Amino acid sequence: MRACIQRVTRARVTLPDEGNRVSGQIENGFLVLLGVGQRDTSDEVRLLARKICRLRVFDDPQGKMNLDIAQVGGAILAVSQFTLYADAVHGNRPGFTDAAPPETARRLYDEFVAHVRAEYGIPVETGVFRAMMSVELTNDGPVTLWLDTDELNGKKKASR
């Protein structure tokens, strides 16, 4: 699994095809763009959820990034993002063969959301799986992090 995590002061997802209906919005917390890969399982869900919820990237009273999302009463806006598995090495049109098929991706995305809520008590809002969405955010810091469960598991080194 891959995640682009942005610390935000606000974020929201609207659905342009439904008259810009808001599907999810948060104030202080993380916007998590979440991609599911071909080989991902529930193990990756748990690993990524634990890592995200324990990230100490919120300021303590001394202004040092030392607090996690629960300690600041933050929330997560989770948005499914298969394009995190884009392969644009050859040519100009990205390929997505490393992304999980929609049925698998949806199951693991839903599992991620449920696990964060149940295990860590973090409020989670969501986008709409496979819908055209508009995502708005105010990045705080800016603080933006990239996590890949293959890297967290030591299976590969970052290639960025």
SSE blueprint:
Elements: E1 2-15, E2 21-26, E3 29-35, H1 42-54, E4 58-59, E5 65-67, E6 75-80, H2 102-120, E7 124-126, E8 134-148, H3 149-152
Parallel strand pairs: 3-6, 6-7
Antiparallel strand pairs: 1-2, 1-3, 1-8, 4-5
Task: Explain what the structure shows.
The protein is of the alpha/beta class. The protein is built from 3 helices and 8 strands; from the N terminus they run βββαβββαββα. The protein has one domain (2-152): 3-Layer(bba) Sandwich (D-tyrosyl-trna(Tyr) Deacylase, Chain: A). 22% of the residues lie in helices and 35% in strands. Strand 1 and strand 2 (21-26) form a beta hairpin. Helix 1 (42-54) packs across helix 2 (102-120).
Whole-number tally of structural domains = 1
Please give the largest β-sheet.
6 strands, mixed
Number of strands: 8
Integer average pLDDT: 95
CATH architecture: 3-Layer(bba) Sandwich
Q: How would you summarize this macromolecular structure in one to three sentences?
A:
22% of the residues lie in helices and 35% in strands. By secondary structure, the protein is an alpha/beta fold.
